[in-house]
Write a structure and sequence with these properties.
alpha+beta; 3-stranded antiparallel beta sheet; globular
């Protein structure tokens, strides 16, 4: 006789809960702080890509493979999960006084979520192996 539906669902949920911690692996940080002072601003035209590491850390990968890490002064809800954000500035630079907004995919397009201030841009280098 097959198990009742409630029992089968409970088992599936329990198995999923066990499997999740095994799959959730943090990737090691590939960077360490480089020599030099943190910058207040970076040139927008030199930003090649970004890598959102968590709710308060964004790596800005620049032309020439320079990397600047921005550690937000406060955690920005859902930034680490969504891994995308927008910003507006009237300057050609992105600065520590600027605000980013988390972007959510709502199926019909992107919607703005929490808005959070940036920190300074710390130069980073590849971690030694």
């Amino acid at each position: 006789m097959p198990a009742p539906l409630f029992t089968r669902i409970s088992c599936a949920v329990a198995l999923a809960a066990i499997a999740v911690p095994a799959m959730a692996k943090d990737t090691p940080d590939p960077y360490v702080p480089a020599a030099g002072e943190a910058l207040d601003c970076v040139q927008i035209r030199n930003i090649r890509s970004t890598n959102v590491r968590d709710d308060s850390t964004i790596d800005f990968i620049m032309n020439g493979n320079k990397v600047y890490r921005n550690t937000l002064p406060n955690s920005c809800p859902s930034l680490g999960f969504e891994k995308r954000f927008s910003y507006r500035t009237s300057l050609s630079q992105l600065c520590s006084v600027d605000i980013i907004s988390v972007l959510f995919n709502m199926g019909t397009g992107l919607q703005q979520g929490a808005s959070c201030g940036l920190g300074k841009f710390q130069p980073m280098q590849k971690a030694p192996k």
